[in-house]
From TrEMBL:
Positions with biased composition (Low complexity): 47-59
Lineage: Eukaryota, Fungi, Dikarya, Basidiomycota, Agaricomycotina
One protein family per Pfam: Asparaginase
Native source species: Marasmius oreades (fairy-ring Marasmius)
Domain L-asparaginase N-terminal, chain residue ranges per copy: 140-232
Stretch forming the signal peptide: none
Catalytic residues of the enzyme: 178
Region feature Disordered, mapped onto this chain: 44-63, 77-100
InterPro entries: Asp/glu_Ase-like_sf (IPR036152), Asparaginase/glutaminase-like (IPR006034), Asparaginase/glutaminase_AS2 (IPR027475), L-asparaginase_N (IPR027474), L-asparaginase_N_sf (IPR037152)
Protein name as it appears in the record: L-asparaginase N-terminal domain-containing protein
GO molecular function, a single term: asparaginase activity
Source taxon at top rank: Eukaryota
């Protein structure tokens, strides 16, 4: 959400671009502060070594420079993917909008696109040895909705999107406005009854676009709870 003339309004690809530019949400080279703060020794090696000063050595939330090519993940939707338009028409497209792949219809009413994945920094996982990270992808709807306008068909669509991507992902995070989150959560609890995978619904009173916000902790907490941890490596 960004500040509009009448309050906060949704903006296509703002979320994806913001998360990709912040090392706490996207650290593909695993060379940020967050990936080296698990121990005193790790931090000292990072802060005094070449990692911090390398072209992509982002300290905390600096934008990535020379971002590496990341594996894509196949995402399916009941609607076309990658053709979003802003609420206020503009001839200038954001970089992520220009790069976002378009979908193809793989079967009647089912659209698929290969979307670049994001990966969190390494972090310690309770009950396991070593550190791991979360790889995830973001599906944005066309058009983005204000949560105060959510209808029954939108709840059905959310459940359908989970069904279409059930085999690909280990868990799901639904980013939702706070106005009607309780209603959506209640509806989904019935639509997704006896589901075998975790679904987390989260939102924030103040969006990521603002310096002081609750969205950072809420989203990171949701990813941590729902995410599938993988060990970073050449094949990840």
């Amino acid at each position: 959400m960004l500040v509009g003339q009448q309050g906060y309004v949704p903006e296509p690809y703002f979320l994806t671009e913001t998360l990709r530019s912040q090392a706490r949400f996207h650290d593909p080279l695993q060379n940020s502060l967050f990936s080296h703060s698990g121990s005193v020794q790790g931090f000292r090696e990072w802060s005094s070594g070449s990692g911090r000063n390398s072209p992509s050595g982002n300290g905390v939330d600096s934008p990535l420079v020379g971002d590496i090519h990341l594996p894509t993940l196949p995402i399916r939707s009941s609607q076309p993917i990658g053709h979003a338009s802003t609420l206020a028409p503009s001839k200038v497209k954001a970089p992520i909008e220009q790069e976002h792949p378009s979908s193809i219809e793989v079967s009647p009413g089912v659209h698929e696109a290969n979307i670049p994945s994001l990966v969190t920094p390494r972090s310690a996982v309770p009950g396991t040895s070593g550190s791991r990270c979360i790889r995830y992808a973001i599906l944005e709807w066309e058009s983005l909705l204000d949560s105060s306008n959510v209808q029954m068909e939108d709840w059905i669509r959310i459940a359908t999107e989970i069904e279409l991507n059930y085999a690909t992902f280990d868990a799901f995070v639904i980013l939702h406005g706070t106005d009607t989150m309780s209603y959506s959560s209640s509806a989904l609890s019935f639509l997704l009854e006896d589901l075998g995978k975790t679904v987390v619904v989260t939102g924030a009173q103040i969006p990521l676009s603002q310096l002081r916000n609750d969205a950072t902790d809420n989203l990171m907490g949701a990813l941590t709870i729902a995410g599938h941890y993988i060990i970073p490596g050449p094949s990840s």
